[in-house]
Amino acid sequence: MINKPKSKLKITTLIRSLLIAEADIMTATNGHISPLIADKGTTGTFIVYQRNAYKLQEVKQGVAGDTCEVLINVVSDDYDNSQDIAEKVLFALYGEKGENGKYTITLGDSTEDVEVNDTSIKYIQVLLFEIN
Q1: Residues 6 or more apart whose Cβ sits within 8 Å of residue 32
Q2: What is the CA radius of gyration of the chain?
Q3: How far apart are the C-alpha atoms of 50 and 117, rounded to whole Å?
Q4: What is the 3-state secondary structure (H, E, C) of the chain?
């Protein structure tokens, strides 16, 4: 019989703790690392993260495991700064393995975006991490 794995549904809690543990990331973002949306009034550089997908791997005997994806957006007024912080995020998370190999974090995809409004331009580095 296959044992039920511990769920990765709350993986974003782990991702946040790994990012907060990195002093360079905390300094660069002034500690602004938020789920889903930045706090109202947040300015400067910040990180927003969200679970993008969560899937159970089912077999005849039940659930064999689960996988998920987490999107991390690094947002900055400065393009080069957004890339620098995205690289720090990549190094902080990529290849991270859970205790006893319960999960592995890899980079599934990456892109960039820009948000322009009347008063500012925000450069956004988007990193899609896969957790297996």
Answers
A1: 38, 39, 42, 44, 45, 46, 47
A2: 16
A3: 24
A4: CCCCCCCCCCHHHHHHHHHHCCHHHHHHHCCCEEECCCCCCCCCCEEEEEEEEEEEEEECCEEEEEEEEEEEEEEECCHHHHHHHHHHHHHHHCCCECHHHCCEEEEEEEEEEEEECCCCEEEEEEEEEEEC
pLDDT, residue 60, reads: 76
**How far is residue 87 CA from its own chain's centroid?**
12
What single letter denotes the amino acid at residue 103?
Y
CA distances from residue 14 to 1, 26, 35, 60 in whole angstroms, order as listed: 28, 16, 12, 30
Tokens representing 57 are: 């791997």
- pTM across the whole model: 0.85
Residue 56's nearest CA partner among 121, 110, 132, 111 is 132
Which segment, 8-22, 74-88, 90-104, is predicted with the most confidence on average?
Answer: 74-88
Per-residue pLDDT band for 59 (boundaries 50, 70, 90) equals: confident
